[in-house]
Please model this.
Amino acid sequence: MAENFNRKIEDIYKTLSKGHKKIADYIMNNYEKASFMTAASLGKAVGVSESTVVRFASNIGFDGYPELQKYLQEMVKSHLTSVQRMDVAASRFDGDDMLDKAFAVDIEMIKATREGISRDAFEKSADAINNAKKIYILGVRSSAALASFAAFYFRFLYENVVLVDTSASSEIFEQMFRIGADDVCIAISFPRYSTQTVKALNFAKDRGATIISITDGEMSPIAQLATHLLVAKSSMVSFVDSLVAPLSLINALVAAAARKKQDDVYNDFRELEKIWDEYHVYRTGGEGSK
Model:
């Protein structure tokens, strides 16, 4: 993708004004920082006006600066090291209240996910989960927490839920070798994308399984393997991934699947409540008080 952007600039570089050449040079030499800069901050860094930056974006074929910025962010975010992430965050949030900024980023990602999610893909994913013989759930590194959360709740709804243990890459295929055309694999992956997840999904796809990919966009490597693609926006605060939006999406997916088999779920939870009460799984209001 970076090569495509460089080629685009090289093709028109001679026709650019002096100010636009400065912007182009800065972006090509500072992709990581430039991708998260506002038009005003980029103009300040280069020594041109904000309006010049906006015109530059239009001049090189984008509808506006936000579209250029989104393109650059997609280009770099899967390749940023932890140190580079900290550098980018320092330039983005310098002087900001980190608590307010972190919450603001999460709110923005949830809104963008709600507005952009494919309702059709979402409903088909819930149907596929309900009709599956076995449900495999896969997430590596930071996505492992999301996979664990999804497995915890799906196990209340279905008997055959497999949370794939990704601590040893060689064992992933041993856990998945029985996957077949009647099964579903829910794969969760966000930048930096894990090669383990991609390899496991290729294996599942070759075996004919339905693939539900939960990731941050169509350019994600697991998006290309999806039967049903669910896009949840993510961002980063320092080296930390903001995964609140995908967590909300998983919440909604569990709820949608449960609604499709509501009577069974009610009966199961009635039995579970009896067991939890009998074995004192949860504290009651009076316990521990004098």
User: Anything to note?
Assistant: The chain is about 60% helix and 10% strand.
